[in-house]
Automatic annotation (TrEMBL):
SUPFAM superfamilies: MFS general substrate transporter (SSF103473)
Tree of life domain: Bacteria
InterPro entries reported for this sequence: MFS_4, MFS_trans_sf, Sugar_transporter_CS
Record-level Gene Ontology MF annotations: transmembrane transporter activity
Major site of localization recorded for this protein: membrane
Topology versus the membrane: Multi-pass membrane protein
Location of this chain's protein in the cell: Membrane
Transmembrane segments: 12-34, 54-74, 81-99, 111-132, 144-166, 221-242, 254-271, 306-325, 337-358, 370-390
Protein name: MFS family permease
Species name: Marinobacter oulmenensis
Keywords, ordered alphabetically: Membrane, Transmembrane, Transmembrane helix
Pfam families registered for this protein in UniProt: MFS_4
């Protein structure tokens, strides 16, 4: 009986659910919950808008550094040790956010939280992918990212549902309460996975790292850099922009994040399907074009129409960018595994860090938040252009 024959639908469901919950914890209850929280934290007087942008930058710096840690320690035996460690760090740092109003402490804590997010966001899907590959189920790996979309909706509900009876640092408590059981159960399931630690490749030769960036993959990495900078502005500042543009009490002040969440939930399945039907590279170009229109809508149509279009179009595409880019990268550089995933996440993390920093500089120099979204438009246009310089692998 082969390994493939041993896997059951229940096992597949449990593993994918565990991975999805782990990503939900670190990437939405850790990172993206800050987006709907930010307008409330500004209204509470805990932060100003420029300070909020600076705090976001510290979180993205940590995310970048976490991805770089994952590049260094990418073997399966290393992941088994580091995954529970950094999930614990995530929960502890989220708890710390409930205890302070000090800007320096908040920034440091969010940096460390981002570090944990970066490590886990690389290692959990990579671990699951290796398990699925051994069972000829690699095509199902993208379903792990459903946790991100569902988590956006969960984070929105946690923030809006407790908005009237929490304030300041206390607004982080719902994320803490939910993170603890989900992280514990998710990592407990992932640590059970039976994955051999490979010392040799399929030809029997010692496993060796090969260059990740060359003439084929270079344009792909550049396009991905544009995606990271382009999507992070709407996904960080959209609710704050809604609060600034719409009357007090308008449904879209919280509703823009709900729209983004609802459109994100089916996006991993959608872009996986489109990649299979039309090819990953054409699908990636379509993905960039739609995402570009979403960011542009917030600039061209200030107000409810632009906000809804931005939320819907960016929400429905940014996870697809991740899935398609990583799959194309694997086709260009086979057998890179977790190291390739870590490298793309690190690049994404660097450009995400640049987005809030550029926004802060723009606001500090008299610019408006809506005009700052133009930075995202330019970045996505840059990324779209470079997708046309990526060679099309046979499997993409």
């Amino acid at each position: 009986m082969t390994t493939q024959d041993c896997v059951t639908p229940r096992q597949l469901f449990t593993v994918l659910l565990a991975g999805g919950l782990v990503l939900l914890v670190v990437h939405t209850l850790g990172r993206f919950i800050y987006t709907p929280l930010l307008p409330y934290l500004v209204s509470d007087g805990q932060l100003t808008a420029p300070e909020g942008a600076a705090v976001a930058t510290w979180n993205y710096l940590g995310y970048l550094m976490g991805a770089m840690v994952a590049i260094k320690w990418h073997r399966i035996d290393q992941i088994r040790f580091m995954l529970p460690l950094f999930l614990a760090i995530h929960v502890i740092t989220t708890l710390m956010m409930t205890q302070t109003d000090n800007l320096t402490v908040i920034s440091t804590t969010r940096w460390l939280n981002g570090l944990a997010n970066g490590v886990v966001f690389v290692q959990a899907p990579a671990l699951i992918l290796e398990w699925l590959v051994a069972r000829n189920r690699a095509s199902m790996s993208g379903l792990v990212y459903l946790g991100v979309g569902i988590g956006l909706l969960v984070s929105s509900g946690l923030v809006s549902g407790t908005a009237d009876w929490l304030s300041g640092a206390g607004r982080w408590w719902p994320a803490v309460v939910l993170s603890v059981p989900l992280a514990w159960w998710g990592v407990a399931q992932l640590r059970k996975l039976d994955i051999p630690v490979r010392q040799q490749d399929d030809a029997g030769e010692p496993v060796a790292n090969t260059p990740l960036v060359d003439r084929a993959s270079g344009p792909l990495f550049l396009s991905y850099a544009g995606a990271g900078l382009g999507y992070i502005l709407p996904m960080t500042f959209l609710p704050l922009l809604a609060q600034m543009e719409l009357p007090e009490g308008h449904a879209l002040v919280d509703g823009t994040w709900v729209v983004a969440a609802l459109f994100t939930i089916p996006s991993p399945w959608l872009w996986n399907k489109l990649g299979a039907v039309m090819g990953d590279l054409p699908a990636l170009r379509l993905n960039f074009a739609i995402q570009l229109l979403g960011a542009l809508a917030a600039v061209v149509w200030p107000g409810a129409i632009g906000l809804v279009l931005c939320a819907a179009l960016v929400g429905s595409t940014f996870v697809g960018t991740v899935l398609l880019t990583q799959r194309i990268g694997r086709a260009l550089h086979p057998h890179q595994g977790p190291r390739l995933s870590a490298a793309t996440v690190a690049l994404y993390g660097f450009t995400q860090m640049a987005g809030p920093w550029l926004t802060k500089q723009w606001l500090d120099n008299g610019g408006t938040l809506v005009s700052a979204f133009g930075i995202g438009v330019a970045a996505l246009a840059f990324g779209l252009v470079f997708t046309f310089f990526v060679p099309r692998p046979a499997s993409a």
